Amino acid sequence: MGNANTTIRPEEAAFFSELARDWWNPKGKMASLHQVNPVRLEFLRDAIDAHWPGVASLARPLAGKSALDIGCGAGLLCEPMARLGAEVTGVDASAENVAVADAHAKAMALDIRYIAGEVASLDIGVFDLVTCVEVIEHVADKRAFIAEIAARLAPGGLLVISTPNRTVASRVLLVGAAEAIGYVPKGTHHWDDFITPNECADLLGEVGLEVIKRRGIAYRPGKGLHLSDDESLNYILAAQHTA
Prior knowledge:
Shape: globular
Strand content: 15-25%
CATH class: Alpha Beta
Distance between the termini: 33 Å
CATH architecture: 3-Layer(aba) Sandwich
Number of strands: 8
Structural class: alpha/beta
Radius of gyration: 17 Å
Order of helices and strands: HHEHEHEEHEHHEEE
CATH topology: Rossmann fold
Strand order of the largest sheet: 3-2-1-4-5-8-6-7
């Protein structure tokens, strides 16, 4: 399974495994993921259009390209990427999540390869697009994990990461209030494990990647979750190999 410090902690994998069957229920325990997914996809599509010239007008801008989603859960991001034309692989530490993801993809007539395991231990090659959303905050050794992510990115490829920021606001709202009111399951977040945008950019720089686009994911009554310049709760970034 590779170096344990680079992986999702076993108790974290078990926690999300328990939620696997409810993952695709937009009103269930994972409702927050369904609400944030369109916001992530808006950023992802903009990043794809900017990274690969000539695809902005295409319905399937990832046609002919490979995509890897690390920590794929039950496939909430894998399925849209497949619809955008990519040949998609999803990897997750939880076998339960992978089973749910695979069954759902088949029901949707989508050909997605799902693999249970830690990315560090898998010989799966490199990919044109690598995504890793709301995962790095569950990993013990973030430097080693980002190195593993970078190793899966093909030359000329695009990386997209999203994660909570480590701020006073995120401690109060994402950990305290969100769990108290049941917006996310209790135990989802551990604030000390959050990473700031600058820390993330520095770790990416150590492995030869540069951040090319970054936005906050914010919440406002009446507007809901949206891309914003406010990174105090959550942020999403795109990176590529340093020129």
